[in-house]
């Protein structure tokens, strides 16, 4: 099993929205960065866990945990001309963009904010800090455990 971090602006799709979704599951679509796409297409596997991160929030924070329940498949929003993330260069035969399905596991009792993450020596190499703009990034097992401990008040 691998660990990930996925980002969403809470006013676009919050962790509470995921909790309220049918079966607490949604497709993670509309990612338009090739590095993040590669993680969705090639890296994320069924059963992997991901931190759910609210970006563009005060403060930005890890607020929940979700599980990958469907591995990468073509992102339908890229093929829909009426969608904001339509990509005229993408097509069904050779799709450019991919998505996964995620299911809520739990909301963190204590969100872990970006300032706390940046102040933690154990998280100084975390992709969230090093490669801040990507909407999907891997998380190392020791980073996962550190964030969990922080959310539980153990560090």
TrEMBL record:
Residues 2-150 form the EVE domain. It comes from the Bacteria. This is EVE domain-containing protein. InterPro entries: 5hmC_binding, EVE_domain, PUA-like_sf, THYN1-like_EVE. The lineage of its organism: Bacteria, Pseudomonadati, Gemmatimonadota, Gemmatimonadia, Gemmatimonadales. PANTHER family: THYMOCYTE NUCLEAR PROTEIN 1 (PTHR14087). It comes from Gemmatimonas groenlandica.
């Amino acid at each position: 099993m691998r660990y990930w971090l996925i980002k969403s602006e809470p006013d676009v799709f919050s962790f509470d929205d995921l909790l309220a979704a049918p079966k607490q599951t949604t497709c993670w679509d509309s990612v338009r960065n090739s590095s993040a796409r590669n993680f969705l297409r090639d890296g994320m596997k069924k059963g992997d866990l991901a931190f759910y991160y609210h970006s563009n929030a005060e403060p930005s924070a890890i607020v929940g945990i979700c599980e990958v329940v469907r591995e990468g498949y073509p992102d339908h929003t890229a093929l829909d001309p009426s969608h904001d993330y339509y990509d005229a260069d993408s097509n069904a035969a050779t799709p450019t963009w991919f998505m996964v399905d995620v299911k809520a596991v739990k909301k963190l009792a204590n969100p872990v904010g970006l300032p706390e993450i940046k102040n933690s020596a154990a998280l100084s190499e975390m992709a969230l800090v090093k490669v801040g703009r990507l909407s999907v990034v891997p998380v190392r097992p020791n980073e996962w455990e550190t964030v969990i401990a922080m959310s539980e008040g153990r560090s």
